[in-house]
Amino acid sequence: MKTKGALLRELNSPWAIEEIEIGDPKAHEVKIKMEAAGMCHSDHHLMTGGIPMAGFPILGGHEGAGVVAEVGEGVTDFAVGDHVVLSFIPSCGKCKSCRAGLANLCDFGAMLLQGEAVSDHTFRIHTASGENVYPMTLLGTFSPYMVVHEASVVKIDKEIPFEVAALCGCGIPTGYGSSTRSGDVRPGEDVAIVGVGGVGTAALQGAVIAGARNVFAIDPVEWKREQALKFGATQAFASVEEAMNEIGAATEWGMCQKVIVTVGEVHGSDVDTWMSITAKAGTCVLTGMGNMMENQVTLNLSMLTLLQKNLQGSIFGGANPKLDIPLLLSMYKAGKLNIADMITRQYRLDQINEGYTDMLEGRNIRGVIRYTEEDW
């Protein structure tokens, strides 16, 4: 079918809304009529080359929610009319990682940036002129329709608003799980959250819900610091340097048992700074993405050893998408997790460049694209 999508044709160029052709669902695939798509910083990394896709043009978007419009042969877990979230990492449930309880490291993840469909390894999305299109993480939520493998689809409660549900395709599980799973925040611990955008605000809430004693929010944007206090942060600071003495005083100079790094762009030169506010035997969880081509890190290895600190990578917050996405949405429904107030602004698809400008200039916790009758 013909539809439209936000494409990148080269690095450092704006998103362009173009006509695209998507295939019908094949075996174990599902067609989704999209309702909402979250605007995550990771899609901006496509523009800068920080996340290198296998080619151009790229169909962006990896965070979204919608309604099942059609199912392919062999699909038994979904039916037309189901409300679903698109998980940016598929979960096959069968590979060694999934069987080991590491669904966020599913073997299907090896194909996330290649552009080829999981089901048959062909390019299923094309431009009006017939060019192959590379969808972000096998999805491409910056389009009002998509066809995806069932491993990337999670059924949800129909009472959940789509704009809320969309954020659970990436940002909410990634942030919340960075605190509660990858970071394993325990009651009474002191926690620092470095970067309080969408993922960081979810991490902040995860730390609060886990029972942290102090939650220190660190972000250069004053408005985000103000929002962090509303979401439960104990104190907020513009930088680690500014926070150092206050964190020391509040923790009797023990510093933070857990430091969760959720900045929009990670630089290796900053790692030792984050480790400096990490306690003895504490853990610094690195959730934010850096440029995949960067491999230089500043880290005092002696202090890492002598103080027995841990530097922990985290993808998708260590989540099991098929399990954790419905659980997090049930917490939202019960009033235990505030997702709605994380949505700062909603945009039309043709406002996508405005939305990313707002994100980069610190005006949003999370922007959401909302699809309407004009798009379908």
From TrEMBL:
Family assignment from sequence similarity: Belongs to the zinc-containing alcohol dehydrogenase family.
Judged by the first EC level, this protein's enzyme class is oxidoreductase
EC number(s) recorded for this UniProt protein = 1.1.1.1
Q: Where is the Alcohol dehydrogenase-like N-terminal domain?
A: 27-157
Superkingdom of origin organism: Bacteria
Question: What molecular function terms (GO) are annotated for this protein?
Answer: alcohol dehydrogenase (NAD+) activity; S-(hydroxymethyl)glutathione dehydrogenase [NAD(P)+] activity; zinc ion binding
Q: Keyword NAD: yes or no?
A: yes
Q: Which InterPro entries match?
A: ADH-like_C (IPR013149), ADH-like_N (IPR013154), ADH_Zn_actinomycetes (IPR023921), ADH_Zn_CS (IPR002328), GroES-like_sf (IPR011032), NAD(P)-bd_dom_sf (IPR036291)
Q: What is this protein called?
A: alcohol dehydrogenase
Pfam families, A to Z: ADH_N (PF08240), ADH_zinc_N (PF00107)
Please list the GO biological process terms of this entry. Answer: formaldehyde catabolic process
UniProt domain Alcohol dehydrogenase-like C-terminal: residue ranges: 198-322
Which cofactors are named for this entry? Answer: Zn(2+)
The reactions it catalyses are:
a secondary alcohol + NAD(+) = a ketone + NADH + H(+); a primary alcohol + NAD(+) = an aldehyde + NADH + H(+)
According to the UniProt entry, the coiled-coil residues are none
Transferase listed as a keyword: no
* Keywords linked to the UniProt accession: Metal-binding, NAD, Oxidoreductase, Zinc
What is one term from the GO cellular component aspect held by the record? cytosol
PANTHER family in alphabetical order: ALCOHOL DEHYDROGENASE, ALCOHOL DEHYDROGENASE CLASS-3
